[in-house]
Amino acid sequence: MAPAIRLAGVSKQFLRRSARYPTSLKTYLVRDLWRRARPASELTWAVRDVDLEIEKGATATIIGRNGSGKSTLLNLIAGLLKPSTGTVWVDGRTSALIELAAGFHPELTGRENVIINGVILGLSRSEIKRRFDAIVRFAELEDAVDEPVRTYSTGMYMRLGFSVAIHVEPDVLLIDEVLAVGDLPFVHKCLERMDQFKRQGRTIVLVTHQLETARHWCDFAIWMDRGRVVLSGEPGAVVDAYQKQMELPG
């Protein structure tokens, strides 16, 4: 089967946080104003030399310890980051739920944010209007949709973001660890909808620390460490290898 996602030689480099901003006028004049190039010590590779293919219809998971490059890799697939080297290719419409409140303007209402996000994700105004009630109903925000989203709780943000992401009806759905902040009944509701996506043959990529979810719910796993893919393939084997390396209980 043809891949839905292909990465070839993908790397992403960032400026270290401690090197981003001058801490004083003297630092700015001496370190920043007169320097033409950043020394290598101020740069870090978040993702390095990734070659990867995820088939259409696959449910893939990315696992690894904190800081291993999982979220950066997901952002590269989503197109929210551009690779420093290499190419990222995704077949079809992509929808991503990566950071809570990402793409939401805090002073705008839930209604206004749904419209804006729908447009950003490629829907026409008529498509947004047709799907609006379903988005709000799934998010269980009928009583709060006309309130500014700055008044929303973390769970409300997650519900609205997930609902917008799935009602775009993407070919590729990308989800970071954000489901961990939802209340249990809504998380089950999200998983049921994702099961429906699986049955429809859509591609899902999920970053998670829940290894049993990775083992039993997904059919392809990617283990990241220090920005590189350590192992990819059948989830049981990948999770077992990760647990053994990290000395985690099985």
Give an account of the 3D structure.
By secondary structure, the protein is of the alpha/beta class. Helix content is 37%, strand content 25%. The protein is built from eight helices and nine strands. The strands form two sheets. It has a six-stranded mixed β-sheet with strand order 5-6-7-3-8-9, with helices on both faces. It has a three-stranded antiparallel β-sheet with strand order 2-1-4. α4 packs across α5. The longest helix has 16 residues. The model has no long low-confidence stretch (mean pLDDT 87).
Brief account:
This protein is α/β, with parallel strands linked by helices. Helix content is 37%, strand content 25%.
Secondary-structure topology with pairs:
Blueprint: E1 3-15, H1 25-33, E2 43-55, E3 59-63, H2 70-78, E4 85-90, E5 94-97, H3 110-120, H4 125-139, H5 154-167, E6 172-175, H6 184-199, E7 203-207, H7 211-217, E8 220-225, E9 228-233, H8 235-246
Parallel strand pairs: 3-7, 3-8, 5-6, 6-7
Antiparallel strand pairs: 1-2, 1-4, 8-9
Helix pairs in contact: 3-4, 4-5, 7-8
Please describe the structure with a list of short key phrases separated by commas or semicolons.
250 residues, alpha/beta, 8 helices
